[in-house]
Fold this sequence. Notes:
Number of domains of chain B: 2
Largest sheet of chain B: 6 strands, mixed
Order of helices and strands of chain B: HHEHEEHEHEEHHEHHHHEHHEEEHHEHH
Mean pLDDT of chain B: 87
Shape of chain A: globular
Number of strands of chain A: 17
Number of helices of chain A: 20
Helix content of chain B: 40-55%
Radius of gyration of chain A: 24 Å
Strand content of chain B: 5-15%
CATH topology of the largest domain in chain B: D-Maltodextrin-Binding Protein, domain 2
Distance between the termini of chain A: 36 Å
Largest interface: A-B, 33 and 36 residues
Number of strands of chain B: 12
Largest sheet of chain A: 6 strands, mixed
Helix content of chain A: 25-40%
Oligomer: heterodimer
Amino acid sequence: xxxxxxxxxALLLASLxxxxxxxxxxxxxxxxxxxxxxxMFYGSEKQAWMEDxxxxxxxxxxxxxxGRPIYVSATPLGSAESMEQILSGAAQPTIWSPxxxxxxxxxxxxxxxxxSGAKLVEGSPTALVLSPVVxxxxxxxxxxxxxxxxxxxxxxxxxxxxxxKSWADYGHPEWGAFQFGHTHPxxxxxxxxxxxxxxxxxxxxxxxxxxxxxxxxxxxxxxxKVESGVIHYGESTGFFANQMFTRGPAYLSAAVMYExxxxxxxDTTRYPSKPMPVVAIYPKEGTFWSDHPYAVLSAPWVxxxxxxxxxxxxxxxMERPQQEKALAYGFRPGDAxxxxxxxxxxxxxxxxxxxxxxxxxxxxxxxEAVQAAWKQNKKRVDVMxxxxxxxxxxxxxxxxxxxxALKTFMAQLDDEDGLGLTTxxxxxxxxxxxxxxxxxxxxxxxxxxxxxxxxxxxxYDTVGExxxxxxxxxxxxxxxxxxxxxxxxxxxxxxxLEALLQEFRKDTEGRSIxxxxxxxxxxxxxxxxxQLAEATGAKSYHPDDTTTIEKIYSDIAxxx
Amino acid sequence: MxxxxxxxxxxxxxxxxxxxxxxxxxxxxGNGIANVPIGPAAEPVTITIWYGTEKRDWLEAAKxxxxxxxxxxxxxPIQIKLVGKGxxxxxxxxxxxxxxxxxxxPTVASPAASMWxxxxxxxxxxxxxxxxxxxxxxxxxxxxxxxxxxVAWQERxxxxxxxxxxxxxxxxxxxxxxxxxxxxxxxxxxxxxQVKFGxxxxxLSNSGAQALVLMAYGYHHKASGLSVAxxxxxxxxxxxGQIESTVPQFGxxxxxxxxxxxxxxxxxxxxAFVYENLAIGQxxxxxxxxxxxxxxxxxxxxxxxxxPPATILSDHPYAVLSAPWVxxxxxxxxxxxxxxxxxxxxxxxxxxxxxxPADPNVAISSSDPSNPxxxxxxxxxxxxxxxxxxxxxxxxxxELLEVWRRxxxx
Lengths: 560, 410
């Protein structure tokens, strides 16, 4: 523990001395006017390290082949999501560095189909840093399962989530239900790793998984049962880790993440009130590596000068000082000369001698079959969308933007998902109660299209009224959520903010109802909206220049 | 791909050269460099060398020394541009004249093994009337030699071959381990999971094709006389399939296996076929540690080199091209650099990078502490290679690759 603090302190000092503050996604100050800018999309797990080292690289003004200073603009994004954006042409980065190479054959196959057989990623890209996929679990819970003497595997986790067992079956009724989490496989690498491992467990294999194995009815059933134990999905592994370490074991018993995030949980500055230690479980059947490949894309939008600049940046990233920093952030360095030492130690819940075996990465075809099987058997959601239609929503075209965004949100939900719509101004109206979306998709879209703005803002009562019926249902096999959009502050409710928060805090029986909040416009009180969301373990959003209301609804949809 | 694999097969014959080349090579060339005074305005002669990436470090260092020596042709200083490529890719791109604007047109091709030169030339001759390989003084010559070896984590290899790897059980035990359900089934730890074996794709990479030949010989317990009947023997095909279906991933690059073993440890691969030079070569300027030493530092347990009962050599030919874009000055410069590489000093340097010199007058074993052949004996490095397999006839190779291709082990 002390060693970790020492490392992190040194790191903090180094970064303060070097840069004096971070500037979000695209690290570094504004590019020089004559700069050669290269762009990079990277898995968000390495954001802290990337921002640190990118800023440093940019400040060195390394020359491109035509003598211009190279400027790297690097954006963190879920690995599967960045792949989709590149394949659709929505994003055209010079460099792609997903969390692992698992997706590269999938990307290559799909790219080849529309580019006369050409590859998007050539050869074997260099691994920048490495971290195994692990199951992070609270140490006392792991011990209750017999760990470390008794190794734990994917099949054990699957059995726990699918059997309906709770911690009471392991002598700890006070811990309640077994709450499991992994990210959305449509967006995030660790989510894909998790469902691949579950399907391997279903097939009783550790290699040679086939599309036929995936299509077996028993596999679908097994997958469905495991997924029923998942509290919610999400696009970012980092968010999951953050929630787990901040909110404690009542929120999540275990989650699929990366070893570096477990190491990070021992950072007492970041997690001052983590209630108990977390350990990384290296599943006994094997796991996957997150090896952060650095791929310079073989795409028409990458020219030779950019390619050479990307090589210069790679060279910088692989130099010893940058690699040593990666280790300090809890990664295993991509530089083979660096031994895996502190902070990757037992004191930080991890074991440098693991993993001892791996699951085989299946072919692109099998991965796609697993993703399809998951989509059919994932946990469904019941969500109530709560929309502020008070008079001020007319300002700045907010109402129209919100309506478009809601329709996008709806498009991301499956027919079996339950969606309801409540509008509120002076009064609240349940426009459509929660029910399967399939039969009413068109009708609901038409209703949304016809909404208009007038009246006051009756926020707390409306949220409470949307929340209470969800709570009345017993814990079941659906994710439950309320998604609230407002542009103002409460002016009409009978109940107070405190009373509403009290109600949220009573949810201790594993229902895990999430209240996502969106503050639209300058009038929204983000402090209050953040309190509401965080009391339920959800996220609060505020659209700005870089985040549109549509993007926010899309992000929320990844939790389902 | 089919056409390429046939070509590889048809022309694999030239591997026969490899076995003997170390012995038949004549006296070292080492003509020395013509130190012609160079005027400040002299235009350089630039030669572009496409080379198999396995020898990057050695070539890069040699290039620096060569350019610094003031080497010139006709009063023009010689500049060298090195472009690293996979051998199969190189053969295909040169043969089909597919040159990127960055890589440029090559003056010299130096793949991992001589077998790729006819592959390249055959492609070239499909649209040209003459060979692309220069003849006479500029004819292809091997630069360095390296055998294919198996690297395995020592703890696990000791379970695999309790009596040592050279007890005639080399291949049989590998097959037995790979067909067992787990390491535990053959006396290893349950936590090691299944046995994981690796080599590159025989259709894409020299070392993968070499591994396949060794397996065919290994199955039949012989080192010469491999026949079409041997490689089409249904029992052999079943045996091969049982091994190949366990390979987690057939890469394009031999270096990738070595890298994965070092970075990810025994969890990723228990054993893999790689070139000897990749296993022992010094790649880190700061620590001067070879890969095998890095692996122990990184994973806290040693990797060990095992030589198959009979192995196979890669000879890294240096082939000056006879193509319309190669000028006489470039050809002369290319020959000068080749002779520099074959000179005593660079051949001695090659040793440090883990290669066996093509010049038989340079001793492999020495008391020099930087000589990995001396330094890494504890990791299993042997100076003497006991036996090499006889290169099978082209038809046999072609059939073997076809068997592999049909098996769809990828």
